[in-house]
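Running this now, will post back.
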Amino acid sequence: MRALFTISLLCVSNIFMTLAWYGHLKFREMEWSKGLGLFAIILISWGIALFEYSFQVPANKYGFKENGGPFSLLELKMIQEALSIGIFLIFTLLFFKNEKIAWNHLVGFGFLILAVYFVFLKK
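Update: finished.
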C-alpha cells in the first residue's frame, strides 16, 4: 500500500514537472501569453514546479526505507526517472504532435526500464 501511494505521488509530481519544464513551449499558441518575456515564463514554470515539489517531497519522505517506506534512495530515484520519461513520452504524444517518436527513442526507453529492473534486482 505504501509503495503504491509513493508511486502515485511520484506520478502526480512528474506530471507537474513535465508541465513546468516543457509546457511553456506551447504558450506561444495561447493568446494570453504572446507578450510574455522569458522572466515571466520562468516565474510561471516556477509556480508550476511548486506543485511538483508538493508531491515529490512527500513521496520521497513516505517511500524512503529509513522513514518506514519500502524503497531505498536509489530505488526512489530510479522509479522517478522511469516515470519521468514515461510521462514525458505521453505528454509529447498528446501536446507536441509534430514530434516523432522513433525506434531509437523506444530502445532508449527500454534501456531505462532495464535499468529499473537491475536496480531492483536482489543480490
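Residues 2-120 form one domain. More later if anyone needs it.
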